[in-house]
Protein backbone atom coordinates (compact mmCIF):
# COMPACT_ATOMS: atom_id res chain seq x y z
CA UNK A 1 0.00 0.00 0.00
CA UNK A 2 1.27 3.38 -0.95
CA UNK A 3 0.60 6.48 1.02
CA UNK A 4 0.81 9.81 -0.63
CA UNK A 5 2.43 12.02 1.86
CA UNK A 6 2.09 15.71 1.48
CA UNK A 7 4.97 17.58 2.88
CA UNK A 8 3.99 20.89 4.22
CA UNK A 9 6.35 23.68 4.84
CA UNK A 10 6.21 25.19 8.21
CA UNK A 11 4.04 28.25 8.13
CA UNK A 12 5.63 31.58 9.00
CA UNK A 13 4.03 33.61 11.69
CA UNK A 14 1.45 36.08 10.39
CA UNK A 15 3.32 39.20 11.61
CA UNK A 16 6.50 38.08 9.84
CA UNK A 17 4.61 37.46 6.57
CA UNK A 18 3.11 40.96 6.73
CA UNK A 19 6.58 42.46 7.29
CA UNK A 20 7.98 40.64 4.25
CA UNK A 21 5.02 41.73 2.17
CA UNK A 22 5.44 45.39 3.20
CA UNK A 23 9.18 45.24 2.47
CA UNK A 24 8.50 43.82 -0.99
CA UNK A 25 5.92 46.50 -1.65
CA UNK A 26 8.32 49.22 -0.51
CA UNK A 27 11.08 47.84 -2.73
CA UNK A 28 8.72 47.79 -5.70
CA UNK A 29 7.55 51.33 -4.91
CA UNK A 30 11.16 52.60 -4.74
CA UNK A 31 11.99 51.00 -8.08
CA UNK A 32 8.87 52.49 -9.63
CA UNK A 33 9.66 55.95 -8.21
CA UNK A 34 13.23 55.82 -9.57
CA UNK A 35 11.93 54.91 -13.00
CA UNK A 36 9.35 57.72 -12.83
CA UNK A 37 12.00 60.24 -11.72
CA UNK A 38 14.21 59.31 -14.65
CA UNK A 39 11.24 59.58 -16.96
CA UNK A 40 10.29 63.07 -15.73
CA UNK A 41 13.88 64.28 -15.79
CA UNK A 42 14.12 63.20 -19.41
CA UNK A 43 10.77 64.79 -20.26
CA UNK A 44 11.71 68.10 -18.64
CA UNK A 45 15.39 68.42 -19.53
CA UNK A 46 15.60 67.12 -23.09
CA UNK A 47 13.33 69.81 -24.59
CA UNK A 48 15.23 72.47 -22.63
CA UNK A 49 18.54 71.24 -23.99
CA UNK A 50 17.19 71.15 -27.52
CA UNK A 51 15.86 74.68 -27.22
CA UNK A 52 19.05 76.20 -25.76
CA UNK A 53 20.65 78.54 -28.31
CA UNK A 54 24.27 77.96 -29.27
CA UNK A 55 25.08 81.62 -28.64
CA UNK A 56 24.02 83.73 -25.68
CA UNK A 57 20.79 85.57 -26.36
CA UNK A 58 21.07 89.20 -27.36
CA UNK A 59 19.05 91.71 -25.36
CA UNK A 60 15.55 92.12 -26.80
CA UNK A 61 16.35 95.65 -27.91
CA UNK A 62 19.54 94.55 -29.70
CA UNK A 63 18.57 95.82 -33.18
CA UNK A 64 17.54 99.21 -31.76
CA UNK A 65 20.68 99.48 -29.62
CA UNK A 66 22.90 98.64 -32.61
CA UNK A 67 21.08 101.20 -34.72
CA UNK A 68 21.50 103.86 -32.01
CA UNK A 69 25.23 103.12 -31.68
CA UNK A 70 25.70 103.27 -35.46
CA UNK A 71 23.87 106.61 -35.41
CA UNK A 72 26.30 108.00 -32.79
CA UNK A 73 29.26 106.95 -34.96
CA UNK A 74 27.67 108.35 -38.13
CA UNK A 75 27.10 111.66 -36.32
CA UNK A 76 30.77 111.66 -35.33
CA UNK A 77 31.88 111.13 -38.94
CA UNK A 78 29.54 113.86 -40.15
CA UNK A 79 30.77 116.34 -37.52
CA UNK A 80 34.43 115.49 -38.26
CA UNK A 81 33.97 115.94 -41.98
CA UNK A 82 32.43 119.40 -41.35
CA UNK A 83 35.45 120.37 -39.22
CA UNK A 84 33.28 120.36 -36.08
CA UNK A 85 35.56 118.76 -33.52
CA UNK A 86 33.27 119.58 -30.59
CA UNK A 87 30.38 117.89 -32.46
CA UNK A 88 32.65 114.87 -32.99
CA UNK A 89 33.37 114.80 -29.24
CA UNK A 90 29.64 114.68 -28.51
CA UNK A 91 29.88 110.90 -29.04
CA UNK A 92 32.21 110.61 -26.04
CA UNK A 93 31.22 110.45 -22.37
CA UNK A 94 31.79 113.94 -21.00
CA UNK A 95 33.57 112.78 -17.87
CA UNK A 96 37.02 112.91 -16.30
CA UNK A 97 36.83 109.10 -16.33
CA UNK A 98 36.77 108.80 -20.14
CA UNK A 99 39.85 106.91 -21.35
CA UNK A 100 41.52 107.20 -24.74
CA UNK A 101 44.45 104.94 -25.69
CA UNK A 102 46.47 105.62 -28.82
CA UNK A 103 49.93 104.21 -29.46
CA UNK A 104 51.80 104.43 -26.17
CA UNK A 105 49.70 107.37 -24.96
CA UNK A 106 46.90 107.16 -22.41
CA UNK A 107 44.63 110.18 -22.16
CA UNK A 108 42.24 110.38 -19.21
CA UNK A 109 39.15 112.62 -19.31
CA UNK A 110 36.95 114.31 -21.87
CA UNK A 111 38.74 117.71 -21.82
CA UNK A 112 42.26 116.24 -22.26
CA UNK A 113 40.96 114.03 -25.09
CA UNK A 114 39.37 117.05 -26.77
CA UNK A 115 42.63 119.01 -26.35
CA UNK A 116 44.59 116.10 -27.86
CA UNK A 117 42.34 116.05 -30.94
CA UNK A 118 42.67 119.84 -31.32
CA UNK A 119 46.50 119.64 -31.16
CA UNK A 120 46.70 116.77 -33.65
CA UNK A 121 44.09 117.88 -36.19
CA UNK A 122 43.39 121.60 -35.74
CA UNK A 123 46.81 122.89 -34.68
CA UNK A 124 49.13 125.05 -36.78
CA UNK A 125 49.61 123.42 -40.20
CA UNK A 126 47.28 120.51 -39.38
CA UNK A 127 44.18 119.34 -41.20
CA UNK A 128 41.36 117.04 -40.21
CA UNK A 129 40.89 115.34 -43.56
CA UNK A 130 37.81 113.30 -44.44
CA UNK A 131 36.97 110.55 -41.91
CA UNK A 132 35.46 107.18 -42.74
CA UNK A 133 34.62 104.23 -40.48
CA UNK A 134 34.32 100.74 -41.96
CA UNK A 135 34.00 97.09 -40.94
CA UNK A 136 31.98 98.04 -37.87
CA UNK A 137 31.12 95.19 -35.55
CA UNK A 138 28.90 95.81 -32.54
CA UNK A 139 28.75 93.25 -29.74
CA UNK A 140 26.13 93.99 -27.11
CA UNK A 141 27.36 92.73 -23.76
CA UNK A 142 24.17 93.82 -21.99
CA UNK A 143 21.29 96.19 -22.71
CA UNK A 144 23.53 99.06 -21.52
CA UNK A 145 27.07 98.11 -22.65
CA UNK A 146 28.58 97.24 -26.02
CA UNK A 147 31.97 96.76 -27.62
CA UNK A 148 32.45 98.26 -31.07
CA UNK A 149 35.36 97.37 -33.35
CA UNK A 150 36.17 98.76 -36.74
CA UNK A 151 38.56 100.53 -39.06
CA UNK A 152 39.10 104.25 -39.45
CA UNK A 153 40.62 106.09 -42.38
CA UNK A 154 41.34 109.72 -43.07
CA UNK A 155 41.64 111.02 -46.61
CA UNK A 156 43.93 114.05 -46.55
CA UNK A 157 44.06 116.84 -49.12
CA UNK A 158 47.45 115.57 -50.39
CA UNK A 159 45.92 112.13 -51.11
CA UNK A 160 47.52 110.37 -48.14
CA UNK A 161 45.22 107.98 -46.29
CA UNK A 162 46.30 107.33 -42.72
CA UNK A 163 44.15 104.80 -40.93
CA UNK A 164 43.99 102.04 -38.40
CA UNK A 165 41.80 100.02 -36.10
CA UNK A 166 39.71 100.95 -33.09
CA UNK A 167 37.95 99.28 -30.21
CA UNK A 168 35.32 101.26 -28.33
CA UNK A 169 33.43 100.50 -25.17
CA UNK A 170 30.10 102.28 -25.30
CA UNK A 171 27.51 102.64 -22.56
CA UNK A 172 23.91 103.70 -22.62
CA UNK A 173 23.74 106.91 -20.59
CA UNK A 174 20.71 109.08 -19.82
CA UNK A 175 21.69 111.21 -22.84
CA UNK A 176 22.09 108.13 -25.09
CA UNK A 177 24.98 105.88 -26.08
CA UNK A 178 28.41 107.33 -25.33
CA UNK A 179 31.99 106.11 -25.80
CA UNK A 180 33.57 105.56 -22.38
CA UNK A 181 36.81 104.01 -23.67
CA UNK A 182 38.51 104.36 -27.04
CA UNK A 183 41.57 102.35 -28.04
CA UNK A 184 42.72 103.50 -31.46
CA UNK A 185 45.76 102.31 -33.36
CA UNK A 186 47.31 103.83 -36.47
CA UNK A 187 48.77 101.88 -39.33
- Uncertain segments are none
How confident overall, as mean pLDDT? Answer: 83
What is the top-level CATH class of the largest domain?
Alpha Beta
CATH architecture call of the largest domain: Roll
Query: Could you say how many structural domains there are in total?
Result: 2
Radius of gyration using CA atoms only: 37 Å
Q: Tell me, what's the shape?
A: rod-shaped
Counting DSSP H or I runs of 4 or more residues, the number of helices is: 4
Q: Reading side by side through the largest sheet, how are the strands ordered? A: 2-1-6-5-4-3
List the helices and strands and how they pair.
Blueprint: H1 14-51, H2 62-81, H3 85-89, E1 99-102, E2 105-108, H4 110-121, E3 130-142, E4 145-155, E5 163-173, E6 176-186
Parallel strand pairs: 1-6
Antiparallel strand pairs: 1-2, 3-4, 4-5, 5-6
Written account of the structure:
The protein has 187 residues and is an alpha+beta fold. It has two domains: 9-52; 62-186, Nuclear Transport Factor 2, Chain: A (Roll), CATH 3.10.450.50. It has four helices and six strands; from the N terminus they run αααββαββββ. It has helices spanning 14-51, 62-81, 85-89, 110-121; strands at residues 99-102, 105-108, 130-142, 145-155, 163-173, 176-186. A six-stranded mixed β-sheet has the order 2-1-6-5-4-3, covered by helices on one side. A hairpin with a 2-residue loop joins β1 (99-102) and β2 (105-108).
